[in-house]
Amino acid sequence: MRWVVYTVLGAVFWAHYGIAAKFSSLGYEHASELTFFWVCLVYGLGGTLIALVLSKAHDSTDTVFPVRSKGWAAMAGLVGAGGAVCVISAMQTGNPLYVMPLVFGPAQAFNVLFTKMLQGFKNRPNARFWFGLAGLIVFSILVQGLKSGAGVEGLEGGSWLVWALLAAACWGMYGVASRLAVMHSAKASGGHGSHHKVLLGVSLVYAAFGVGVWVFGALGLTGAITSEALFQTSDGVVFGLLTGVAGMGGAALIIPANSVHGSPGPIVVMAIVFMVAAAVNAVATSVWESVYLDIAPNLTAPFLLSLVGLAASGLVFSLNSPNKPPKPAALPS
Fold it and tell me: Which structural domain range is residue 223 located in?
């Protein structure tokens, strides 16, 4: 049951992503490219180093990483980085208290959709599937309509909603992309594949994004990534690094959670990840705002019930497991 441990720990890491990104954004006066640069730096240096060390220690000498594995690992890195950009952008005008549920909730729907598309439509969804999907839509709308506790500044405008949904689409793809990368590696090597090489691929993609952000800044296409800009405030630096740690930690743990022996795969694993992350996010945001900003969010009962409904709907929706092949009919006696 190692996959359960990896899943829950990964969810806890991702649950802190939004609030860390928000505080870094506040420190940088909403200069999102600076926060994203720190995220890329953590992945590019820390993720790559960790992946190389673990790969050398645990991968067998015959474990190879074929082109298909590299391609899916790169895809996992792209959607991971894409989701990061969208979440950080959402935090310019949104509060993680209600932004992140609208990332984690719809991400469950995208996860099932992408998993079915890439692994085959093996089952016809039953009534629970459609009931859970309806719940995801309804409770996502309720979370937005009943949002409360907006203690963090910067709530003007509604662009955060678009960014949140785009992040949901990106992160909904992460689980199945990383699993396919490991599985293709397993087919080539005769083992169960390399989790660590997949993390290496994801981290290298983030490193490339970091270089790209720096180059765009130098060309004047984004804010300049200079030492003066990066270190203008300790809050921006510290919370930018914490955002990277939260993102990398979750991403690294979710890869084996989807792929170790006994794992049920993205349909179930990612449902648990997003459900736990949504719950922990509400608690973490409230605690961090109270401690760091001396603000006690006004968490109303309807808002909390909407969060519970969103999580429960996602679980019902995903546990339908439409990718499991139907049981064979019993042979006549």
Answer: 2-318
Asked if the structure places residue 332 within a domain, the reply is no
Which backbone phi and psi does 93 adopt, to 5 degrees? -125, 0
Task: Examine residue 44 and state whether it is found in any structural domain, yes or no.
Answer: yes
Question: Other C-beta atoms within 10 Å of 174: how many?
Answer: 31
Residue 330 lies in a domain: no
pLDDT digits (tens, 9 = 90+) for 94-152: 888 888 888 988 888 888 888 888 876 666 667 887 888 888 888 877 877 776 554 44
Would residue 227 count as lying in a domain? Answer: yes
Q: How many domains does the chain have?
A: 1
The identity of residue 31, as a single letter, is: A
Tell me how crowded residue 227 is: count the other CB atoms within 10 A of its CB: 7
What does the alpha-carbon distance between residue 292 and residue 310 come to, in Å, rounded to a whole number? 28
CA nearest neighbour of 28 among 210, 232, 245: 232
CA distance 91 to 89: 5
